[in-house]
Specification:
The protein is built from eight helices and two strands. The chain is mostly helical. The protein has one domain.
Length: 181
């Protein structure tokens, strides 16, 4: 990996974390400003093929959270609209920018990204709950965990060239079988 690519990965990671704090801890006004900054920077590093992926992932993630909201698994203080709050929609957009940058390596391994999503996604919502931004039921944590795991797993499998973690002996034995045929 080139130095400029490493800088882009680190910038993307730090930028997303800044977006998470702005969205979850500070809400609408800060969310819009910080996510806009990340998206402007992202325009300089992303190729045109990446934007449909960012939009599709964001819409599916927003749909997942909105369904959880409508079913009563998650709720938001001082919010009673038909859709989830804007700050959470913006957070999905910011997260989608990580898929081909700071999460790119992990996205190539469905066997890694799925269990990671099962743990990391509910943890993020748990922290949002403790910051007072979201209320979530026990079932909500399960819906979030499995929803994220499925979403990231499907994207990993469909949009990234998955590498299955296998040992050298598995590779050697399959090549021996092929040579005997």
């Amino acid at each position: 990996m080139k130095v400029s690519q490493r800088v882009d990965v680190i910038t993307n990671l730090v930028g997303f974390q800044a977006c998470w704090v702005a969205c979850v801890a500070y809400g609408q006004p800060w969310a819009a400003i910080v996510v806009a900054g990340l998206l402007i920077w992202h325009c300089f590093i992303a190729d045109s093929k990446e934007w449909p992926l960012v939009v599709l992932f964001s819409l599916l993630g927003i749909g997942l959270d909105n369904l959880s909201y409508l079913l009563g698994y998650i709720s938001f203080p001082d919010h009673d609209g038909l859709f989830i709050p804007t700050w959470l929609m913006l957070l999905w957009l910011a997260f989608a920018t990580t898929l081909r940058h700071s999460l790119a390596t992990l996205m190539r391994y469905p066997r890694v990204i799925v269990p990671l999503a099962l743990v990391a996604a509910p943890w993020s919502y748990f922290m949002g709950h403790h910051l007072g931004s979201i209320d979530i039921t026990g079932t909500g944590y399960l819906v979030i965990a499995f929803g994220w795991a499925i979403l990231l797993g499907v994207f990993s499998w469909c949009f990234f060239k998955p590498r299955m973690a296998s040992s050298a002996t598995d590779t050697d034995s399959s090549s021996i079988k092929q040579s005997r045929s």
